[in-house]
Write a structure and sequence with these properties.
Blueprint lengths: L2 H11 L1 H4 L9 H18 L5 H24 L1 H6 L1 H6 L8 H26 L4 E3 L2 E3 L4 E3 L7 H18 L3 H32 L8 H5 L1 H40 L1
Antiparallel strand pairs: 1-2, 2-3
């Protein structure tokens, strides 16, 4: 529910470039037509479509309607300049259940693989059976609740403005987003291993205590710290090229 307000904030930050030459654009009709088509599809599908898909389609149609109104009011140039804020609005659309389940399964499998690697690296004897790890005193299962889906979505939302304002190259933006996803899996593996070791060598109650229930923010911040060097490295490698491009443009302008 916060996504529209964040999108409005990004529009405000970029207001000078977006609203410099407002004008009417008939191109908003395309978004209006798409909005009507999606809404009618959801409407006429009725009970043939699951409730979660109906909600997804309805919210998607509303977002398209907002973009249509924006295009009608401010023109094609404003839509082009404010593309990031307008696309950010689509994060308001709730994901259908089948898509969420697919992400959770992927995160569970990735977390299990990294957990096994970490146990082997630190020399802890463990027997793995799928998503279940048998240790000396406890058995650990990487359940749906341990997939880290919430922190992964939160980091993805946070990473989008970082790459938009911090990076210019498209492939560097995509590379950083991929790293963010991998770091979330790594962070989740570290969390599972940490709680498991505390349960085995300190107290089994760590598997049900405060660190397990509310300690996600600690490991989320750890993920951010792991991503910070990646962002700085990408920015550093991008800066010399941007500087060279500006110098080339300046010298070219002087010759002209």
């Amino acid at each position: 529910m916060l996504m529209p307000f964040l999108a409005a904030g990004f529009l405000f930050i970029e207001r000078r470039a977006i609203f410099s030459h407002p004008s009417f654009s008939a191109g908003g009709g395309i978004f209006l037509l798409l909005s009507v088509l999606v809404l009618l599809s959801v409407r006429f599908a009725g009970d043939k479509v699951p409730p979660d898909l109906q909600l997804t389609g309805s919210v998607f149609a509303v977002i398209l309607l907002w973009i249509a109104g924006f295009a009608f009011s401010f023109g094609k140039a404003a839509v082009k300049s404010g593309y990031f804020s307008l696309l950010f609005l689509f994060l308001t659309v709730p994901l259908p259940n089948f898509f969420v389940e697919g992400i959770i399964s992927l995160l569970q499998a990735g977390s299990a693989e990294l957990t096994e690697i970490l146990f082997n690296l630190i020399g802890v004897p463990v027997l793995r059976e799928g998503l279940v790890f048998h240790l000396a005193r406890v058995n650990i299962e990487i359940a749906r609740e341990c997939s880290g889906i919430r922190s992964t979505i939160a980091l993805f939302i946070l990473a989008l403005p970082l790459v938009h304002y911090g990076l210019h190259s498209l492939w560097r933006k995509l590379f950083f987003l991929m790293c963010a996803f991998l770091v979330m899996i790594l962070k989740n593996g570290i969390r599972i291993v940490t709680l498991s070791l505390l349960a085995v060598y300190v107290d089994p109650s760590f598997l049900f205590g405060t660190l397990h229930r509310d300690g996600g923010i600690v490991f989320f911040l750890l993920g951010l710290l792991l991503l910070l060097p990646v962002l700085l490295l990408l920015q550093r490698r991008e800066s010399p090229r941007l500087a060279g491009t500006k110098e080339l443009g300046t010298s070219s302008g002087r010759r002209n």
